[in-house]
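Self-study notes.
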Amino acid sequence: MSEPLKRPKFWGSQAASGLALISPTALYAVLLLAAPLAATLVYSMMTDGYLTILPRFQLCNYIGTCHSVLADGTVSPESYLGAWSDPIVRTLMARSLLVSILVTAATVLLAYPVAYFVSFNVEASRKSLWLFMITIPFWTSYVIRVFMWNVMISRTGVINSVLQGLHIITDPLQMSFTLQAMVITLAHAYAPFAILPIYVALEKIDRSLLEAGQDLGETRFTTFLRVTLPLSMSGVIAAVLIVFIPTIGDYVTPNLIGGGKIPMIANMIEKQMLKADNRALGSAIAVSAMVVVGVVSLIFLALNRRYLKGPK
């Protein structure tokens, strides 16, 4: 009798089980993340036509021989040269970076004390309740939360009405349509995203290390600077990236809070892709923005790599 065929060692192994476990998630990521990104990259290298996009790549023409009309009526080289040479795009990219950095700094600086309080000062039996309250803003739509800020800070909104009712001010303050209002709104919207990773990092800290520091004569403040803060930096780094990356591509807040007067790079992409029907240029701007975000994020990670390695 012939021996039965042996199944390859791969099948039934831990590697095969792990692959089968992540396959649905990997397929989901490929279909909903990788495919749109690949389509955007392909579009960015094509030629924009009248109400359509022509399947003709422009890599050979990026020296400036092929031109297209931008939204403001100026003529610039197509796609990437059009994105990189247009001063409007550069201005919006710089503004988006500035807003995102300010929002990230404000959010993380305000989120850390909240996470620290919940981790170190709240009883273990009530921490779940505090985390539940922190996630309450997620119950409503992001657009509704932004719109409510617009209602609060308008000239006839709650803040101005209260200040005038207390006779603190006589004329309403102009808070809408400002960069500061956009930063405050975005910081509030992304606060839970910063609180949760910092809280998780703080919860992992061995409390005996803090007690040892104080036993050696350190004050609570110096113990925080030399022990707590370095050990929680992994959560801070995660919070920075979680807030920085999406805020730079936000376009709802500039429309509702900024009134369209303080556009960001995402608003330019939306204008090119939908209103101007220039998917090639819009895709090139989107790819350029992703590259800028990726470079800034990698620089930030490189500067903080010692914290990512964890304690020795």
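Second protein, same conventions, sequence then structure:
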Amino acid sequence: MSSSIQRFDVGARMSEMAVHNGTVYLAGQIAEDGSQDITGQTQQVLAAIDALLARAGSDKSKILRAQIFIKDLADFAAMNAVWEAWVVPGHTPPRATVKADLAKPEWKIEIVVTAAV
């Protein structure tokens, strides 16, 4: 018997999060306010991740993997400063950062995480 899948904020195109077998899968998170710089957008994205993980009964110390898509590699150091202040020391997850053209021109960053419950 397979365990059930819980989906959160289900829309016509995608869900914001799914939980299956004790693992939380988040959709790519982007900033609500695209007018902010990379620091502000990264803070918004990480706050959204915190909120979603909390809804699933998890938190950032349980992130198994992070994928970061960044529009401009010139923003890499500033993004890392926000990231390093946010992650839990000793619980930093495996991570990849990729330069990418994002779906909307004002978006500077999108982050996808997978976490344990």
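Instructor comment on the second fold: The radius of gyration is 14 Å.
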